[in-house]
Write a structure and sequence with these properties.
The structure is a single chain. The chain is an all-alpha fold. The protein folds into 2 domains: 135 residues, no CATH class; 43 residues. The chain is built from 5 helices and no strands. Helix 1 runs antiparallel to helix 4, helix 2 packs antiparallel against helix 3 and helix 3 packs antiparallel against helix 4. It is rod-shaped and about 100 Å long. The protein starts with 10 loop residues before the first helix and ends with a helix. It is found in: Membrane. It is a multi-pass membrane protein. This is GtrA/DPMS transmembrane domain-containing protein.
């Protein structure tokens, strides 16, 4: 069966879908950022932890809350056949994102010697921005994979099978109708 232009969504429709996905990703991510910065601030100021330890604790808590948002809101329609694989990949890519974010913070504090709380927050913003781009690409590409689209041959064979079943049902129905007509004709003939 030939692929028609109607079976492929136009570029505008794909971009519209991607825009919606980016907005939802941003909403979930923004909630994670709020949690991340709040925990980071409490760890640095309230608990007196070092900046890297505070960053790791804050990021781990944000990762956990973000997973719930991504899985049950943004990517709820994606393939969830293998949750173990999904969670493993999510944690791996989130961990890489955390390393990116923590690396930027470590570079700022230990190499550039910018270690006031506000300078650390600024470094955290930059690291988080870079890590967010990495996470978006990796989550949508490898973690929350889209359900595979049916192949045109499979769609055609399914349609052909449905048509054949419909035709067979129609032939069977026609045979039953003819049998009923013959029976009625015999009954009328006997009544006369």
């Amino acid at each position: 069966m030939a692929t028609t232009a109607a079976s492929k969504p136009p570029l505008v429709q794909k971009l519209r879908g991607l825009t919606g996905e980016v907005v939802k990703f941003g909403i979930v991510g923004l909630s994670g950022v709020v949690i991340n910065f709040a925990v980071f601030w409490v760890c640095i100021n309230g608990l007196g932890l070092a900046s890297l330890r505070s960053n790791i604790a804050a990021t781990v808590i944000a990762i956990a809350t973000n997973y719930l948002g991504y899985r049950y809101w943004l990517y709820r329609d994606r393939d969830a056949a293998s949750r173990k694989r999904e969670i493993t990949l999510f944690l791996v890519f989130s961990g890489i994102g955390m390393l990116i974010e923590t690396g930027v913070l470590a570079f700022t504090v230990y190499v550039l010697h910018l270690d006031s709380h506000y300078e650390q927050l600024g470094a955290k913003v930059i690291g988080l921005a870079v890590a967010t781009v990495f996470r978006f690409v990796s989550y949508r590409t490898w973690v929350f994979t889209a359900l595979p689209e049916p192949e045109p041959a499979a769609v055609a064979s399914t349609a052909d099978a449905a048509h054949a079943a419909h035709t067979a049902d129609g032939q069977e129905l026609a045979a039953q109708a003819e049998l009923m007509l013959v029976t009625e004709q015999i009954r009328y003939a006997k009544a006369e």
